[in-house]
Amino acid sequence: MSIVSVAATPDYTDETVYAAVCRHFEALNVAEDLKPGMKILLKPNLLYGKKPEAGVTTNPAVVKAVIRWLTQRGFNNVVVAESSGGLFNAEYMRSVYSVSGYRVPGIAEYLNRDFTFGTRHTAEGFTVKSFNLITPILEADYIINLPKLKTHAMTTVSAGVKNLFGTIPGLQKPDMHRRYPELGSFVRMLCELCETVRPNVTLLDAVDSMEGNGPGGGTVRHTGVTLCSRDVYALDVAAVEFMGLSPMDAPHLRAAGEMGLLPETVTVTGDELIPCSPAFRLPDAVKSTGFEDAAPGFLRKPVEKVMDLLLRSYPHVDKSKCVGCGRCAESCPQKIIRVENKKASMPRKNCISCFCCQEMCPVHAISAKRGLKSL
Ligand code: SF4
Ligand code: SF4
After folding, report:
1. With bands split at pLDDT 50, 70 and 90, how would you rate the model's confidence at 107?
2. Separation of 96 CA from ligand 2 center, angstroms?
3. Each residue's pLDDT tens digit, 156-199
4. Is the beta carbon of 361 within 6 A of some atom in ligand 2?
5. Integer distance in angstroms from the first to the last C-alpha of the chain?
């Protein structure tokens, strides 16, 4: 049985968020795990530098409240580390921290300044034999995962498990997309990564969440809650149900189920967790074509399979919005994006529909369009 602690968290004021963190950590007896001198790593979601109110990043109030909880109890060896989309170096991360509101007293002193990485081997039988991980993760004695609840153009949902993709250094992330281009292999890789990083506790920021074209270009939805669990899969199951979806709508939870990683039961404690109504709007890239819904029940699965074989979602650039920054080209695992005369263009040929380009576009110039699968 896995426990998920729920705390109504109506806003991001320091006292409100701190009270929620206290409730979660008490419910899960987190203090019992910690010893003086332990290296405690906090892993927020800093997809890229974005103001907290945009709903793209873990709100600094959550990070600050967790640091306050730890330091007030004498656990001062804390580091906040993330490898955003883009480069993993001091200059780039300084700008991400600044824009995202992390260079403030109570967080700034704890921000990671080590931009090296190392290798950790995985368990026997995994498809991925080893992962390159940022050094603070490799050196941590205790990991507190601090994701943001968002929809995701490739994986449908971004919560606890997906947040750990940011433990892979910088532009090695597109490389993982290239190595695992199909959704099924990619989400299995995410589960193997999660099993290799093994966060001790996951605390989800769903005070303001993101729906629609997440994880970077969706719309903010106030959902007023934080969730916390020692079991990251249980937390994701609860989070997906909270979004008004079924856990099986989330490909990484299907993969986790096949790998035997899902808990048999998930017990919610604390405040009531009422599924959102209406359910979260999904990204255009993962919406059904409508044919599946129109098919009678017994034909739905085969129709889904045929539609998947014939049609795929591809990125499409709105040239009137594109500012030619080149971030999409930098993050494209297939290196197929060209930026000429300050406008990006991307052919369908060799596109693996990972939507890293859409994720990283700062002006939301990239949308998803269905088209015949490029072979
Ligand atoms: S064009 Fe976009 S969706 Fe296609 S492979 Fe490159 S980053 Fe992925
Ligand atoms: S990231 Fe967006 S704005 Fe920048 S070049 Fe690509 S499409 Fe244009």
Report:
1. very high
2. 18
3. 999 999 999 999 999 999 999 999 999 999 999 999 999 999 99
4. yes
5. 45
Instruction: List where CATH 3.40.50.11440 sits in the chain.
Output: 2-270
Q: What is the pLDDT of residue 191?
A: 98
State pTM to two decimals. 0.94
| Number of neighbouring beta carbons within 10 Å of residue 369 | 12
| Tens of pLDDT, residues 5-24 | 999 999 999 999 999 999 99
**Ligand 1 centroid, distance to 198 Cα (angstroms):** 29
Which CATH number does the domain 288-372 belong to among 3.30.450.20, 3.30.70.20, 1.10.472.10, 3.90.1150.10?
3.30.70.20
Give the closest residue (by CA) to ligand 1 atom 5: 351
CA-CA distance, 257 to 226, in Å (whole number)? 24
Residue 272 makes CB contacts below 8 A (sequence gap 6+) with 6
- β-sheet bridge partners, residue 366: 317
- Residue 215 to residue 56: CA distance in whole angstroms: 6
Of 154, 144, 122, whose CA–CA distance to 205 is shortest?
144
